[in-house]
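User: Hi! I'm a student and our assignment asks us to look at how structure tokens line up with a sequence. Could you show me two examples?

Assistant: Happy to help. In each example below, the sequence comes first and the structure tokens follow. Example one:
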Amino acid sequence: MLNLDLLRREPDHVRVAARRRGGGAEFVDRILELDRERRAAITAAESLKAEKNALTAQIAKAADKKAAAAELRPKIAELDARIETAGEGVPRYDERIDAELSEIPNLLDGSVPDGDDEHSNVQVRTWGEPRRFDFEAKPHWEIGERLGIFDFERATRLAGSRFVVLRGAGARLSRAIAQFFLDRAARNGYTELNVPVLVNRATMWSTGQLTKFSDQMYAFEGDAPGEELYLIPTSEVPLTAMHREEILRGEELPLRYTAYTPCFRKEAGAAGRDTRGLIRMHQFEKVELVWLTTPERSMDDHETLTRNAAGLYEELGIPYRVMLLCAGDTSFNSAKTYDVEAWFPGAGAYREISSCSNCTDFQARRTQIRFRREPASKPELVHTLNGSGGAVGRTLAAVIESYQRADGGLTIPDALQPFAGFSSIEPDGSTR
């Protein structure tokens, strides 16, 4: 959530930041007007309280307190009613201001380039050279179906489009990728958590998932009347909210968490995009990396997080590039995002395989996760970072396309072989 004090101090800065994202900035004037009305209501209530206190003091000082009370108590009662009325308006202003603030995206970091969409993203670095094949490289879904490790037809009968059943070596290889990711996260100092994949509305809202722009979530009725539960779109949600409304000790930071979970997204608005294969599924698996850190080190930690994610693909021998997202392509919660894009030989293109974001104090203001530098110091908001470390299905697709063989089989990358228990998938679907 945006900082109201910042909006008061630097309204023009907020207007410029909002317009960089391609949105309007009319909300600035609306919020400032509501804030002025709220302060006026508070001032009016305080003035009435002062008037009441003055009358109460008159009674206390009067020579004939009984007579003074009889004369002034009706006026005091009238003031009490007016004070109550004036005070009742303040929470309503607070609610309206919070509702406005909750729909405003994070302010972009100054290093984020201008631009409306992915075509304005900036390449930061690359690693590896795309493999040159002496045969026509095929897309992963074609290879997987031929090997019998993907079953889209039965998945469609079970659940509809954008689902897959992984069979035999495909399921084992997917599990191996997840185990590889978790092993490397542990090496990099992340604490693994096993978290709920169903969370309540407060958790979803506090991590910035429920805005007027959100149409990706699957929601259900909970056990209690009026309770809503949501399937998580990413384990960023429970990992970030783990310490909601807590005050952490400064020496604890940074906290680094990882979790391997299924994730669920409706993919509304994605009709016609990536309808084949494993790129854009309603249900997928991901190992997420989340940091809670201090403001002064969050940008450096963002670079470390991105290196942690990108390093996975170096070990897998999959060429990639790191892209700094432009203003119009940066997500609601993020102040700055790097996408790691792996090379997909079957598509002849780089595709996003991990997205690493610095959300600064934006989520922490909603979740009220704070820390004290010293035991007696004033609590400050943490900064939250998140990234895919990494997306299991997309990585499986990248591995299949990158390590396909002319005979129709696959070679398993060296880094995955200890986790998979085999070094190849042969053309008949068997393993060696």
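Example two works the same way, sequence first and then tokens:
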Amino acid sequence: MKQLYILLILLTFCAFATKIAAQNTSQSSISTYAVDKGDSMKILVMDNIYVYPPQTYKNFSEDATYWKTVRDVKKTLPYAKMIYSTLIETYEYVLTMPNEEDRRKHLTRMENDLYEKYKPELKKMTLSQGKMLIKLIDRECNQSSYDLVKAFLGPIRAGFWNAFAGIFGASLKSTWDPNGQDAATERIVEMVEMGLL
């Protein structure tokens, strides 16, 4: 309850400070101010704020599982975000290439570079972290890891990597279900992104 009061006080302060700033500044900064019927208003865009009840556990095992999931999310979420940004950059760059052969060469070169750069770090991941990374890639990219590999490297290589993951009990076809089986993990991801964990 104390956190809710602090949040309300901060929002009130922001609204008050915004009102004062809107009256004292010029209308030259178009992107942050709007004028409505002769009165200037500051536009304030805030990130979503999620408020969760405190975690309660029935036993030590549930507590340990929760903190293991937190550890796995903290380790793999930056990689999932990096993969998403790399995919966007690669896709945009590949579109500028004149023919299919140049695209294939670039993708092969990029695959080898990424494999060489991140292999030592990814080899240190546990199996649960690997499974978490596959799920978080689906969360960030809105496509399963299998679909991404298939789109960039073809169905044969996607099938190979999925079979390789299957040896360890994972699947590149795993999807993210934030309202179902991944609801608890989604909560952890959102808290990590807000810096609360």
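Here is something you could point out in your write-up. The first strand starts at residue 33 and ends at 36.
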